[in-house]
Amino acid sequence: MLLWFAWCLGLILIQVSNLQVGPVWAEPSKRTDQRPIVRLVPIVTDGLENPLFLTQAADGAERLFVVEQPGRIRVLEKHALSPSPFLDITKLVLFGGERGLLGLAFHPGYRHNGRFFVNYTRKPDGATVVAEYRRGATPTSASQEERTLLIVPQPYPNHNGGMIAFGPDGFLYVGLGDGGSKGDPDNRAQNLEDLLGKILRIDVDRGDPYGIPTDNPFAREGGRPEIYAIGLRNPWRFSFDVKTGAFWVADVGQYKWEEINLVTRGGNYGWRVMEGTHCFHPSTDCRTTAFSLPVSEYFHDNGRCSITGGYVYRGRVLPSLVGTYVYGDFCSGEIFALNTGDTGNDARHILKSSLQISSFGEDAAGELYVLDHKGGVYRLSPP
Fold this sequence. Notes:
Blueprint: E1 39-44, E2 51-55, E3 64-68, E4 72-77, E5 80-81, E6 87-88, E7 101-106, H1 110-113, E8 115-121, E9 128-134, E10 147-152, E11 164-166, E12 172-176, E13 198-202, E14 227-230, E15 237-240, E16 247-251, E17 257-262, E18 274-275, E19 278-279, E20 296-299, E21 307-312, E22 324-329, E23 334-339, E24 347-352, E25 357-362, E26 368-372, E27 376-381
Antiparallel strand pairs: 1-27, 2-3, 3-4, 4-5, 4-6, 7-8, 8-9, 9-10, 11-12, 12-13, 13-14, 15-16, 16-17, 17-20, 18-19, 21-22, 22-23, 23-24, 25-26, 26-27
């Protein structure tokens, strides 16, 4: 990421075919419901620098952790921002544009083992690093000792991806963009020998520095064994439905289309051949059944330009949103709710804000937070 900067401003649109190869659920409606569904309650509006992610450790404590892009992890306790960072690796992090400290995931057994993982862009070469750290002497401090798991060279300064999260299976999932520039010039997202443009899946509890799950699609042959899914442009944020385990990946588009995918093992999500459900690369035949089409997409109009993936809401304070996938757009500041059930596939426009929505966050109770890249953390609450 920071994907949203990418191509939102000043890019010349190119002509691409709009061949429709299959149905999608629905793009967001252009109206807001007359009665407000949610409001944004400010939690922190001062003291954060370029916040990109929020999460909660599985240790029974109510504290929240906020990732700052320059290379710090901050602690929120009872809605108060601790002055000292939980972790500060700014000396290691190459910060700027779409680079920086981009992801954080606490081990499911964090309460006992104190292990957590980060994804960052390193100095001086801009490579992506996935590394392990451990809790320090207190619950609000971390050791500075790093154990590197994965290093992936980045050919360009954009489309780093950055999200990492543990799935219901206990494995660590890593989102990597296509390496940047525009149009994936080296077709990395479709190259099974390249980790870029992929979702990776690794076992951090076995192997040195990690193990390969035996059911990864290329665990034995045919491609890089870490690969779980291919054909992604810039999967900035993804999440697992805590009730169903469904894997939701929002992939940032190029010139016209933003998309949401339900990702499964071995799936190919089309990039660079497709942008959403539309033909992108003119030299490639798009009429193929090889690709898994997005479940939803939307066009770059009304100021929209970069999707920020969220979560299937499983909290209690917003009953009208239970079971919907909540996501937003960085450029327009809008928030949407996509119906995921069997009774309909409509995407509702639920809120218009002035935020630069860099991420959503989820706490242990299933309640959702919205991060403003300009420096704020907000909670979704009843109107």
